[in-house]
Description:
Order of helices and strands: HEHHEHEHEHEHEHEEHHHEEHEEEH
Shape: globular
Domain Aminotransferase class I/classII large: 33-381
Distance between the termini: 69 Å
CATH class of the largest domain: Alpha Beta
Protein name: Aminotransferase
Keywords: Aminotransferase, Transferase
Largest sheet: 7 strands, mixed
Radius of gyration: 22 Å
Enzyme class: transferase
GO molecular function, one term: transaminase activity
Strand content: 5-15%
Number of domains: 2
Amino acid sequence: MSIQTAKRLETVEEYYFSKKLREVRALAASGKPILNMAIGSPDLDPPKEVVQAIQSAVVVDGAHKYQSYQGLPELRQAIADFYKNKYDVTLNPENEILPLMGSKEGIMHISLAYLNEGDEVLVPNPGYPTYTSVTNLVGAKPIFYDLVADNEWEPDFDALSKRDLSKVKIMWINYPHMPTGANGNVKLFKKLIAFAREHNILLVKDNPYSFILNDSPISILSIDGAIEVALELNSLSKTFNMAGWRVGMVSGGNDKIEAILKVKSNMDSGMFQGIQKGAIVALNISNSWYTKMNTIYRERRELIWELATILGCTYDKTATGMFVWAKLPKGINAMEFIDNILYNKDIFITPGDIFGSNGKGYIRFSLCVTKENIKEAIARFKKEELQLANNSIINQKS
Length: 398
């Protein structure tokens, strides 16, 4: 007997990495020496203090009970302190902060809280694919707005204002931007706030890469008037290498947090207390942590730049975040290019196509790869160059 699935599943496909990684794992299982340079999953450990806090919290009386949907009061206070110290943003921990089981959860909660069937959502192209898939799943319609290198990966407000925006309820923005690494700036965020206010749009800034190779982290909530029209998602996944623990937060006006809580409280039963205790320690960690992490990422990025150059790519050295966004030579199909490298060099890189049509002709490298593995990838290509040079000499002699 076959039970028909919901029609909403017809609007989405399996996440690219979910599907492609099965192929990559199968190649590795067959004995291929696969180097995965595609996924932004931190390979480094969280701070030791965080792990110790989580371990200690496991044996505390009451640790295994259901937890508050709003999280521990001390976690919300730690988030408020973090926002004040790092972004100079004052938030009320009672009603302007909601802890999440990862910011990805927040994308769904916000969409369910605000979108009706037929509503429209402004989604960046290129951008994080989940914005589109969640919009489709809730029955709304994604309206893609272009981000291009010639405009520094910023929205074209003149072009946007000429569109019919009457049905648009939400606009997703993401700076530092994934996948391009564009950082964003106060001038841009002021324009976005004014645009959202003019068109009565909820602006949602996804901000998980603030502290990765970025000397000027900015919260959208630091802009005058933002609290009235904007929400901000943030995460401990990238900053503190806690991706698997699933800790994030959404911040904004009381009315918006209350709306999201209505959804969240019907979908989970609170975050495990031990993880919350670890998150508190992470949010209060000293600045030396950020320096240490960025030193490692900076060294890796130098090597990735070298690899990208070998592949004939160009890239922006001012970009921030956990990835290197590289442009292929003109005319090369990125999907075919990365498959050729996967099958012939046993190296997995992300094609830019999966982030939208404006990602065509680009590839994305993750910095969540050891220096040794990046050097090995470089060596595999240099070995081919040496073989070609030797073959050329032999052919000339013959």
